[in-house]
Amino acid sequence: MAAVSASDLQEWIEGERRNILGMADMLGVPTDVYTRDPMSLIPALQDYVSRAPLDEFEQSDWITLHADLMSYVADYLIQKHGASWSVADDPAAPRGYRFVIEATGRDGQTRRVDPFEVVSKEFDSLPIEITRMLASAELALHLASQAGEGE
């Protein structure tokens, strides 16, 4: 594992949680409602990204939106599926590591997904669709049933 202290990881986790709770509050979803059901943020968040003037965004706007959506993807996976933040070595990253989400899939195997990459892929397929983005993360971790699998 990368040289990251437990306090650095904890600081990251707390910052991401504060970010998404602030975002929910800004979009009019009370903290207690969001905490009970992370899906409660989907309609407000979808409305927000659908109304955002993406064609007028400057780099700083894209970075902020990316960070906000990354926080939501991660927190959704944590709340809905019991996932957790972890650290993955990445020599290509400026720090030599990335913060990723780790979860045990329906097949019992533990996998990791980088919420930053999930959001990046969503930006490649505009317009932004919040449910598609969440589904992509769930599929990467094998948390959702595959099409045709039947339940």
Describe this structure in words.
- Helix 4 (59-81) crosses helix 5.
- The protein has helices at residues 6-26, 31-36, 42-51, 59-81, 115-123, 130-140, and strands spanning 84-89, 97-104, 110-113.
- The chain has a 3-stranded antiparallel β-sheet.
- Helix content is 53%, strand content 12%.
- A hairpin with a 7-residue loop joins strand 1 (84-89) and strand 2.
- The model has no long low-confidence stretch (mean pLDDT 93).
- It is mostly helical.
- The longest helix has 23 residues, at 59-81.
What topology emerges from the helices and strands here?
Blueprint: H1 6-26, H2 31-36, H3 42-51, H4 59-81, E1 84-89, E2 97-104, E3 110-113, H5 115-123, H6 130-140
Antiparallel strand pairs: 1-2, 2-3
Helix pairs in contact: 1-4, 4-5, 5-6
Q: Which short descriptors sum up this protein?
A:
151 residues, three-stranded antiparallel beta sheet, 3 strands, 53% helix, mainly alpha
Largest sheet: 3 strands, antiparallel
Radius of gyration: 16 Å
Number of strands: 3
The fraction of residues in strands falls at: 5-15%
Instruction: Pick out the low-confidence regions.
Output: none
User: What is the rounded distance between the termini?
Assistant: 37 Å
- What topology, given as strand order, has the largest sheet? 1-2-3
Outline, from the CA principal axes?
globular
Count of individual helical segments:
6
N-to-C series of helices and strands: HHHHEEEHH
What is the percent of helical residues?
A: 40-55%
Mean pLDDT: 93
